[in-house]
Amino acid sequence: MSRSRLDACRRCSPGPVGLLAAIALALPSGSLLGADARVFTLAIRDQRVDVPERTIRVTRNDRVELHWSADEPTTLHLHGYDLEVEVSPERPASMRFEARITGRFPVARHRHRGGHGHHEPVLYLEVHPD
């Protein structure tokens, strides 16, 4: 490569700091170099979530990760935050978000029977003020 092309490439290169910044912006919320997140691992078995209490409580502005597994394919929707994932025995899924909206929100299984969608809450997310 000629010296002038090499100099041009160096001028356009973001350098190590710019490269790290670009990688940090591309990472999903809550996974940036050990950022504090409220992590919940949840399993759906026989159409129910295996947790003693059906309510998850967090504080506004918490980073939240809901890691899902299931014994049959299903679609999960976190109402209020409009997050949806498809989960199956072969494909666990995660919802990652910052809890900016306070209130009580259902996480529902979406199934379609006879042309009608059924929304069955499997648990609730409560986001409390600071």
What does this structure look like?
The protein folds into two domains: 1-35, no CATH class; 37-128, Cupredoxins -  blue copper proteins (Immunoglobulin-like), CATH 2.60.40.420. The strands form two sheets. Strands 3-9-8-5-6 form a five-stranded mixed beta sheet, with no helix packed on it. The protein has a four-stranded mixed beta sheet with strand order 2-1-4-7, with no helix packed on it. The protein has 130 residues and is an alpha+beta fold. A hairpin with a 4-residue loop joins β5 and β6. It has two helices and nine strands.
Write the SSE topology:
Layout: H1 3-12, H2 15-26, E1 38-45, E2 48-49, E3 55-59, E4 63-70, E5 74-78, E6 83-87, E7 93-98, E8 103-113, E9 116-128
Parallel strand pairs: 1-4, 3-9
Antiparallel strand pairs: 1-2, 4-7, 5-6, 5-8, 8-9
The total of beta strands comes to 9
Q: Please write the CATH class name of the largest domain.
A: Mainly Beta
The Rg value, from CA coordinates, equals 20 Å
Structural class determined from secondary elements: alpha+beta
Low-confidence blocks of residues: 8-34
SS strand fraction = over 45%
